[in-house]
Amino acid sequence: GELNPNGFDGQVNVDAGSGYTTMDLIYGNRSAITYHSSGGSNPTYVTVSVDYDPPGDGFFDHYDPPDEIFPQNPDSPGRLYWPYIAVGNNDNIHIMATENTDRRLQRLCYCNSTDGGNTWSALQFVDTVMVISSVVDASPVSNRAAVGYTKTQDTTRQFINDVVYVPSEDGVSFDFRHDKVNITNYLDDNDSLWAYTDMDIIIDYNDYINVVWTASWESADGGYYYRTDIYHYSEETEEINIAVPTHVDSGWFDIQGGWNMPIAKMNLGASELGGLFMTYTRFDTSDVSDGGFGNGEIYMTYTYDSGVTW
After folding, report:
1. 164: burial class by Cβ within 10 Å (0-12, 13-18, 19+)?
2. Three-state SS for 6?
3. Nearest-angstrom CA–CA distance, 207 and 205
4. Using one digit for the tens of pLDDT, what is the confidence trace for 105-162?
């Protein structure tokens, strides 16, 4: 429809330092957007903005989910940033967010709202992580929900991580202590395809959980190569398959952007016909700027056999 028919300037929120935006749909295709803010008018930090009813006019109600845990020390205030949102078919809002701290280790937390953002559950501690990787999704056909993240295995190196998800059958209650499913279960110093930074999770129309992540190759000096695959796990088959194989030489270091790999920033979608679709950013040595920096392109791949072939 017409953009901003009432002359509204179209900003979702005017808080300073807003960013890391993710969104989903709520209440008949109205947008529910989450992001963090470093300052400005209340609410600050993690915010959820929901489109007015009817949608399309560019006006939003702002909600303030819990985003503060007890401080680690005076320099680590215990505030959460980098939120990720999912809305279930029952319109429950799920939020995952990571601690903004000067410490190497960060706490990962979860909360939800069952009334569109007016009230929120208590903040739940999920795990301790070293990278910002948490994602959450809700089923399009049931009340199921699932959160996913890369679980730290070696606190001296950021890229030594397992891929973990936690399901919830009712879409409200999670047992983050006992229900963790470790997909990769890598063996320290014996495996090389460590999970690093980027992942996504989706519950498909058959109600199965699917997870994708970047698998990085460890180098002989204890660092990592830029050689990377994208792996896919299906709860239906309990199999891991390569969705996108590596395509560049391991020594290429001209990729720009925080934690970018040659293939990165995956995002999953599901079809009612049974397919899974994944977009991702790909960098290539043949496409670089005058300064030698890689120009990312957006690609798509898909599967109709639960991730066996793409």
Report:
1. buried
2. coil
3. 5
4. 899 999 999 999 999 999 999 999 998 999 999 999 999 999 999 999 888 888 889 9
Q: b/e for 274-291, b at 16 or more Cβ within 10 A? A: eebebebbbbeeeebeee
Quote the CA–CA distance of 289 and 281 in Å, as a whole number: 16
pTM comes to 0.90
What spatial distance separates the first Cα and last Cα of the chain, rounded to whole Å? 36
Q: Of 136, 141, 266, nearest to 201 (Cα)?
A: 136
Encode pLDDT of 56-96 as tens digits: 666 888 899 999 888 766 666 678 999 999 999 899 999 99
Angstrom CA distances, 115 to 34, 44, 93, 167, 212, stand at: 16, 21, 8, 21, 30
Distance CA 247, CA 284 (A): 8
Query: 7 near 27, Cβ under 8 Å?
Result: no
